[in-house]
Write a structure and sequence with these properties.
Elements (H helix, E strand, L loop, with lengths): L2 E2 L3 E6 L5 H10 L16 H13 L9 H11 L9 E10 H7 L6 E5 L12 E2 L12 H28 L8 H12 L8 E9 H11 L6 H17 L1 H4 L2 E5 L5 E5 L5
Parallel strand pairs: 1-5
Antiparallel strand pairs: 2-3, 3-6, 4-6, 7-8
The chain binds flavin-adenine dinucleotide.
Flavin-adenine dinucleotide (FAD) binds next to helix 7.
Length: about 270
């Protein structure tokens, strides 16, 4: 069992364009080819937005020539639906169940796959130390000790419950051993705390990620999810500068960070 303070956030999926198919479509419509200027370096996310937005008016080769100008115009007008074509997926670990309970409240444009506490044994679980309890700070070390004692007690109760339930739940009630293990674990997990470490695969489109970062990067959001929102923002700013560069990151008097977009809820 370990105590964890920092999440691991891995970007695992990103958009990609089949340029040959796009060229074929334009050719079939008698439209000019997409100019190189539509690409923002290796980042194809802005090009996805531009190609989809231009389809609405069949305006390929016309109008704004600068992609940054084009994207900012869409953001400022709140033409959010074209940003739904761009998806990014993360595998996130080292976060608490309380964080994921907040995360999964975001529904529109999100997909989730989370480690199951019914199928997976939690006897060796790790726990998240909330950002407010810095183990290395003399001021909070006592509170961190209280927290750790609670975690140890919960884990011990979990293991005892698994052991007791294993003695009393009859095998013949279940079609398989795996079903029986699930029945035991689903009951025993009730004593695990919000701080239990979990892992989740989250995919969302850019419109949804922007909304998530705006809501959870705000000063009134819980520190743990706020920290995650800012880590995700920093990764997406690198991946897709034009779609996220209007966000600013500021430091609050307590030393924590907040994120705010120029263009709110597109
Ligand atoms: C600081 C903070 C404190 C919170 N405290 C609480 C709390 O105490 N209790 C609690 O229950 N929740 C709480 N929440 C969760 C909050 O109420 C939302 O459920 C969560 O933030 C997801 O936001 P959303 O619905 O805008 O997001 P998404 O589900 O990502 O939706 C994005 C947008 O799509 C639209 N949309 C999505 N679904 C629908 C729909 N079914 N119908 C119509 N429009 C839709 C809305 O415009 C919505 O804003 C809190 C959130 C924050 C940030």
């Amino acid at each position: 069992m370990q105590y964890i303070s920092d999440p691991q956030v891995r970007l695992v999926t990103r958009p990609s364009i089949n340029w040959a198919a796009i060229a074929d479509f334009l050719d079939s419509e008698g439209l000019p080819p997409i100019p190189d200027s539509i690409r923002s370096g290796d980042d194809e996310s802005s090009a996805v937005v531009e190609i989809s937005a231009r389809l609405c008016y069949m305006s390929y080769g016309r109008g704004r020539k600068d992609i940054s100008d084009f994207i900012n115009n869409l953001l400022s007008k709140g033409d959010g639906s074209v940003f739904e074509h761009v998806n990014y997926g993360f595998v996130i670990s080292g976060i608490s169940r309380s964080l994921t309970h907040e995360l999964v409240r975001h529904r529109a444009g999100f997909a989730y796959s989370q480690r199951s506490q019914r199928y997976v044994d939690e006897s060796e679980s790790d726990f998240i130390i909330p950002p407010a309890l810095n183990e290395n700070d003399a001021k909070t070390i006592k509170a961190a000790d209280v927290m750790k004692a609670a975690m140890e007690s919960s884990l011990s109760s979990y293991k005892n419950l698994v052991s007791e339930l294993d003695k009393i739940i009859p095998e013949e009630q279940f079609e398989s051993l795996s079903d029986r293990r699930k029945a035991i674990r689903q009951a025993a997990r009730s004593v695990l705390p919000n701080a239990t470490e979990t892992k989740i695969f989250v995919t969302a489109n850019v419109r949804a990620w922007r909304h998530f970062i705006e809501m959870r990067g705000a000063g009134f959001a819980d520190w743990e999810i706020r920290n995650l929102a800012i880590i995700i923002l920093k990764i997406l700013e690198q991946e897709s500068p034009l779609l996220f560069s209007d966000f600013t990151i500021d430091k609050l008097p307590d030393g924590t960070l907040t994120a705010k977009p120029k263009y709110s809820k597109i």
